[in-house]
Design a protein that fits this description.
Structural class: alpha+beta
Number of domains: 3
Distance between the termini: 40 Å
Mean pLDDT: 86
Radius of gyration: 23 Å
Strand content: 15-25%
Helix content: 25-40%
């Protein structure tokens, strides 16, 4: 991309973008409208090339803090029917009673924003036993015969984000294999997000709910921000094309199910070794922003500055017709999933329509944005986020069936 800038003394900056490949212009224009530009110019000459640096300021997309929405009776009944409810002897609030903590650093000595919780000796044994029981419920049938072979290595508390989760490392003492589970404050938005991910995405998610405590399994992968920082430069050209394709599909998937705030640290990149190469997949790990915000851009990952390298990769590696092909593929896959889980998905949407998981002004704003995006008048009649999600899924399903019959 070549940037040409014209500016004068009264700070009215004019700028335009020239593309070497005109086929990429449409995709970039959708992203370009996001940014406000504050120019801090430095002109340097290196190898006879003039370098202009500038600061890009992202449009404010997110609310300062999303409120926690309780799980109502109807959603609780749904969770019972589909085996998401359980009974456990420890709650999220119990883990908050740690008596001390220490900062957890990564291998490079950077603060991870997690602290290692320490509990009084008289409580530690009971807490560890309860967590082992939670592990058996989440990963098997609750059989306690395996408990003597389990060890709770660490209990970490996250000081960053809305959910403030606890991360528990559970190890099998017979072979030293370990995994993680997470305990969080139950939030209806997050539960809807997890269940929609399980039903409509290519991924399956294991989670349980008991009263105000949510238990989630660990989603393995390389955090997106780490992947961009540490692995991007070493990727082969084929791998770059594949990741660009996956990012387009991931973006489409998030938008169609209204999963917001997919900044690079809220998803993971999963490398899968095939017989002749490595395949990369992208999957969400944070479901806190399921259909809460009123700005449609929040539900499209390529609008976040944290994903700029991914967007640049799409511009570099994919033609416009390929981008549109991958979008259509993802919409078709989603429509097929809707048809295959017809009863369960509409039962979940019915719960959403009878729940409050956003604010009235955000519902009004989002339905306006989606109407302008789709021109479907049904969105004008939506009264809550559940109505909007139903209309989006019906829109995708209807278009798929119409194309299929022609």
């Amino acid at each position: 991309m070549i940037c040409n800038f014209n500016f004068n003394h009264n700070h009215n900056h004019n700028f335009n973008f020239n593309f070497k490949n005109k086929n990429k212009l449409k995709y970039f224009n959708e992203v370009e409208i996001l940014f406000e530009f504050e120019f801090e110019f430095e002109v340097a000459v290196a190898v006879a090339v003039e370098v202009v640096t500038f600061t890009v300021m992202e449009e404010k997309l997110m609310s300062k803090k999303k409120p926690n929405f309780p799980i109502n009776l109807k959603l609780n009944e749904y969770l019972t029917v589909y085996n998401r409810n359980t009974k456990i002897s420890i709650f999220y609030d119990d883990l908050l009673r740690f008596s001390g903590s220490m900062v957890v650093y990564d291998k490079k000595g950077n603060d991870t924003l997690w602290v290692r919780a320490h509990y009084d000796e008289y409580e530690r044994g009971e807490i560890e036993l309860s967590l082992k029981k939670v592990y058996t419920l989440l990963h098997s049938d609750g059989n306690e015969e395996t408990i003597p072979f389990l060890s709770i290595d660490t209990i970490d508390y996250c000081t960053f984000g809305n959910s403030k989760p606890f991360r528990v490392r559970v190890r099998n003492v017979l072979n030293d294999n370990y995994t993680y589970l997470y305990l969080k404050k139950a939030d209806a938005s997050r539960v809807y997000g997890l269940e929609l991910e399980h039903i409509l995405s290519p991924n399956r998610i294991n989670f349980l709910v008991y009263n105000e405590t949510l238990i989630e399994e660990h989603i393995a992968g390389i955090p997106g921000d780490d992947f961009i920082r540490d692995y991007f430069l070493a990727l082969s050209e084929n791998a770059k094309s594949q990741i660009a394709k996956e990012f387009v599909k991931f973006n489409e998937r998030c938008m169609m199910r209204l999963l917001g705030d997919m900044r690079s640290y809220n998803y993971v990149v999963v490398p899968i070794h095939d017989f002749d190469n490595v395949i990369y997949k992208i999957r969400a790990i944070d479901f806190d922003q399921q259909c809460f915000e009123g700005n449609l851009k929040v539900y499209r990952p390529y609008f976040f500055k944290e994903n700029r390298e991914m967007v640049n990769l799409v511009q570099e590696k994919l033609q416009e017709n390929s981008i549109e092909q991958y979008r259509k593929e993802e919409r078709s896959i989603l429509a097929k999933r809707i048809l295959s889980v017809d009863e369960q998905i509409w039962a979940l949407i019915d719960c959403m329509e009878n729940d409050t998981i956003s604010l009235p002004e955000k519902v009004k704003s989002l339905r306006k944005d989606i109407f302008e995006f789709t021109t479907d008048p049904k969105f004008k009649r939506c009264k809550n986020m559940g109505n909007i999600v139903r209309s989006v899924l019906q829109f995708v399903k209807r278009n798929y069936e119409n194309v299929k019959t022609h």
